[in-house]
Design a protein that fits this description.
Layout: H1 6-21, H2 30-38, H3 45-52, H4 56-68, E1 102-108, E2 114-120, H5 124-135
Antiparallel strand pairs: 1-2
Length: about 140
């Protein structure tokens, strides 16, 4: 069995997390449906249903609905620079110890907004809270 492509794998992880944490028989949140709709041009509906454990009828209805809605203007998120010092992270003029391992993180929300970080392992706790704030904003 081959590994799933990154975008489908991330969406599957979002669905698994939602299913594990939902209470009762909640409907699938709109953000998750939007993530599925964003994949419609790259994967057949049968694969989306199989990998994301979706009802074929529900997926068809959502895809029809997405096709009939007027296309929203594509909005490119504005780049927002953050001062590393304000986050308690080392700046370029104060590099981490050269012997310390680095971690590269790329977080992506269902809406496509990404946060990329490259930082020393010792700062993981600070980065973790930043990433949580990013994912829940």
């Amino acid at each position: 069995m081959s590994a799933l492509p990154d975008d489908l794998s991330r969406t599957r992880a979002l669905f698994e997390h939602w299913r594990a944490t939902r209470s009762g028989r909640e409907k699938i949140p709109e953000e998750l449906w939007q993530a599925v709709i964003a994949l419609r041009d790259r994967y057949p509906a049968s694969q989306l249903c199989r990998e994301l454990h979706l009802s074929a009828g529900a997926l068809r209805a959502r895809l029809r609905e997405a096709e009939t809605q007027p296309a929203a203007a594509t909005v490119t998120p504005e780049f927002v620079p953050l001062r590393l010092e304000s986050l308690g992270l080392p700046s370029a003029d104060r590099p981490a110890k050269s012997t310390e391992a680095l971690i590269r993180l790329v977080w992506e929300r269902a809406d496509g907004t990404r946060l990329r970080l490259l930082l020393p392992v010792s700062l993981w706790a600070r980065a973790e809270s930043l990433c949580q704030a990013f994912l829940h904003s």
